[in-house]
Specification:
151 residues, mainly alpha, 63% helix, globular
């Protein structure tokens, strides 16, 4: 992705998201689109050939994806608690399908479902922590999860 410099200066990337920052590019795109249209270039000459996420377990990727969205909603959302509540409802709805997906692919440890449940347990902390404490805690949470990389 590439953006105009002045738009990025106004809508900075979130420095609290470290390493595998699932959702960061989507969040940045939404915020940067306030300053002009976004363009998709399907035949771009420069692109990510392989994601570094491929080295992370399914559980870790799902967990980071969900908690990163909760974090981004909390720090940028106009109504963060309502956004996280909506995300929570979406997770409850998808849990059934995550079990089906995991078992259908013979993943007996149901990593997607476990990540859903564990993310829901983290959301209250993300929602209720003071902003300065959240900015300090969340990168440590991410790093710990990535370093453990449970499957």
């Amino acid at each position: 992705m590439t953006y105009r410099r002045d738009a990025v200066r106004k809508e900075r990337f979130t420095e609290s998201l470290t390493r595998y920052a699932a959702g960061e590019d989507l969040d940045a795109s939404y915020r940067i689109s306030r300053h002009g249209a976004l363009v998709v270039a399907p035949r771009a000459k420069l692109f990510h050939a392989q994601s570094s996420a491929a080295r992370l377990s399914r559980y870790t990727r799902v967990m980071l994806g969900l908690t990163n969205f909760a974090f981004l909603y909390r720090i940028y959302g106009k109504r963060p608690h309502a956004l996280v509540k909506r995300l929570r409802r979406g997770i409850y709805r998808r849990m059934f399908f995550d079990v089906i997906t995991d078992l259908g692919r013979l993943r007996w440890t149901v990593p997607r479902l476990r990540a859903d449940v564990d993310a829901l347990r983290i959301f209250p902390r993300i929602e209720n922590m003071e902003r300065s404490a959240l900015d300090e805690w969340y990168p440590q949470f991410q790093t710990g999860l990535i370093d453990r990389n449970p499957s």
